[in-house]
Amino acid sequence: MVRLRMIDDPAFLDKLAKLGPALLSGLDALETARRHLHPQRFDEIRSALEPLHQKLAGALTVFEASETPDEAKAFAAQIAKSAHATQKALSGFLQPISGPEEILHAMHQHCQAQQFLYPLRRVLPPVSRFFIEPAYRDRLAELDPEPAQGVMVGLHRGGGAPPARGGFVLYVPESYDGTSEWPLVVALHGGSGDGSDFLWTWLAEARGRQFLLLAPTARGDTWSMMGPDVDAPAICSMVDYVKKSWKVDASRVLLTGLSDGATYSLLLGLQDGSPFTALAPVSGVFHPANMENGNIERAKDKRIYLVHGSLDWLFPVMIAHGTRDALQEAGAELVFHEIEDLSHTYPREENDRILTWFDPGLALPAPA
After folding, report:
1. 1.20.120, 3.40.720, 1.20.5, 1.10.1060: CATH of 4-125
2. pLDDT along the chain (368 residues), means of 10
3. Quick check: pTM over 0.85?
4. Which CATH fold would you assign to the domain 136-362?
């Protein structure tokens, strides 16, 4: 990819200086909108997103209308792809909503925008800073070095390109050098989702705190919670593949998930022989099968971090209270965190608490 300091075209650099901040502001606002998504807050969310949508649209129009230096055309095409996906995501939130499909599509575009943008992190320092937690933004060179010889880092896909069902995306932080064992976090998407999107819920944390991140995709529309369990052997096979190809600390393997992914994380994580040493389900339910298949007995002494929102409209919080009580009675080593302003969405800020609970070595560094 071209290095910007090699481009001697003030007009191009000027239009890039307008597009870049508009793009990153739009992505950041979409993250906030997703966190606070609730039918009663749609008007408030739209009011916050509308000026950012207009600013990005104007900057993108100018960026694409003027001449681009030959040496910057590949770079310009890549950042424009991210900007167009961000614009579609913003538009999706701003349009009248007749059903969940519109919001799900907007959220998918938000993830696509990040996928297109991430490869530009070594060209644009603000992009690199966007994809890492603030505590690590003074360590970018250390955390994104040239890969060690023979070590595979970055994003890896298996099982076909998205939206192929039953595949996975693995993120190996660029600072991984293969000299020591790292923790592994396995993150399960919600119903109708896929791993290539849900990965972005955890990537910035993995990049700075240095753990491997595996995001599988269910073989069906959602995880195997009815009928034969086709996902458990697939996910365990993925974990085995990661362990064989990279150094994984088997004593630090976390299974987490959102909504259906949370529900399934308890079904899978409590199975006999499960490779997961801790579970962190977010906004899910306790499937009745757990009471019949021996999982509830295996919950004894299992480390579980249970998260639910007081405003959850799909799975009311009283259901989570029942899950909490059942796991406590079974003897699980349980942490239950009810979030007052959380609806049926993902609370990105909870990643810090989950990781610190899971492994104190993954806690944020103390302020200088």
Report:
1. 1.20.120
2. 68 94 98 94 95 98 92 94 98 85 94 98 96 97 93 93 85 97 98 96 98 97 94 97 98 98 98 97 97 97 98 97 98 98 97 98 90
3. yes
4. Rossmann fold (3.40.50)
